[in-house]
Amino acid sequence: METPADRRRVDQGEIPAALRHPIGGPEIFRDQIECAAWSDVTPQILPFTGRPHPGMSGAFTILRLPSLDIAHVETMNTDAYLEDEHSVERYLRAFDHLCDLALSPDKSDSFLREIAVTL
């Protein structure tokens, strides 16, 4: 049986803000963490470093369709669907860069499970 002393301590300064404040309470947050175990979900946590990264300008999603790739970009008061190849490629590079900066999927999964135990 694992004891708290056996687990690596989570450095609170490295935990992204979204993981420090479980919206909806601990039970809902634990349920959300369990979704990370789904086979079609690959969680990767971007540690808080205080340095700029491509995700700071706002949320975006890459939609990979059989005939076309689309970048869906969200801003504070609107959103946009970008279909031109140059724009989509720019968001694909940003996504790849974010993945490179983030913890690996295995480390992210372990990190989320550690947080779930503390709730």
Brief characterization of the structure:
The chain has 119 residues and is an alpha+beta fold. The protein has four helices and three strands. It has helices at 17-20, 26-35, 85-101, 105-118, and strands spanning 60-64, 69-74, 79-82.
**Shape label:** globular
Q: What is the average per-residue confidence, as pLDDT, rounded to a whole number?
A: 79
How helical, in percent, are the residues? 25-40%
What oligomeric state do the depicted chains represent? single chain
Strand segment tally: 3
Percent of residues in beta strands: 5-15%
What is the makeup of the main sheet? 3 strands, antiparallel
Distance between the termini: 19 Å
Helix and strand sequence: HHEEEHH
The DSSP helix count reads 4
Coarse structural class: alpha+beta
Widest beta sheet: strand line-up = 1-2-3
Structural Rg? 17 Å
Contiguous uncertain segments of 5+ residues = 1-12
Description:
By secondary structure, the chain is an alpha+beta fold. Helices cover 38% and strands 13% of the residues. The chain has four helices and three strands, in the order ααβββαα. Strands 1-2-3 form a three-stranded antiparallel beta sheet, covered by helices on one side. Strand 2 and strand 3 form a beta hairpin. The model is unreliable at 1-12 (pLDDT under 50).
